[in-house]
Amino acid sequence: MTEAPIARHDPILTPSAALLFGFTGTVPFLVLTGIIAVAGSSTWLENAFTFYSALILSFLGGIRWGDAGTTKDPGHRDLTLSILPSLLAWAALMLDDFYLQLAVLMLGHLLT
Predict the structure, then answer these.
(1) Which percentage of the chain shows pLDDT scores above 90?
(2) What pLDDT is recorded for position 10?
(3) What CA–CA distance (Å, rounded) separates 26 from 73?
(4) What distance in Å separates the CA atoms of residue 90 and residue 106, rounded to the nearest whole number?
(5) Which helix (H) or strand (E) holds 76?
(6) How far apart are CA 105 and CA 111, in angstroms?
(7) What is the pLDDT of residues 16-60, one digit of tens each?
(8) Could you tell me the pLDDT band of residue 8, with boundaries at 50, 70 and 90?
């Protein structure tokens, strides 16, 4: 007896609500960047930006983990790639320098 394959969604047919919420997730990035550009930086603003960025990076890793879980036998590569964003986000938050945090988080987002 064979099992039916798990259905995967076509990424081109992403539901409009998912697109809306996805774009809404960029609002804190845009608002915080605008405030920092206009009013200048502060520890609170830097923390708000880096913490949100780390949170989103971890969320993206969780999406990858969930996607790997839809296959019958996820490989080590898929599972490893799904935990790396969270580890990279955590490592970035452990750094003392705001600009180094930004560089690590930006690299994580670009790679993800």
Answers:
(1) 62
(2) 61
(3) 33
(4) 13
(5) helix 76-94
(6) 10
(7) 888 888 899 999 999 999 999 999 999 999 999 999 999 999 999
(8) low
- Residue 7 gets which letter from DSSP? P
* 52, 32 contact by CB (below 8 A): yes
User: What separation in angstroms does the CA of 26 have from each of 2, 68, 74, 82?
Assistant: 43, 25, 30, 21
Q: What is the DSSP string of 16-75?
A: HHHHHHHHHTTHHHHHHHHHHHHH---HHHHHHHHHHHHHHHHHHHHHHHHHHTTSSS--
Query: Half-sphere exposure (CA, 13 Å, Cβ side) for 81?
Result: 14
Over the range 55-75, which residues count as b (16 or more CB within 10 Å of their CB) and which as e? ebbbebbeebbeebeeeeeee
Can you tell me the distance from the alpha carbon of 79 to that of 35, in angstroms, rounded to the nearest whole number? 37
Q: pTM score, two decimals?
A: 0.80
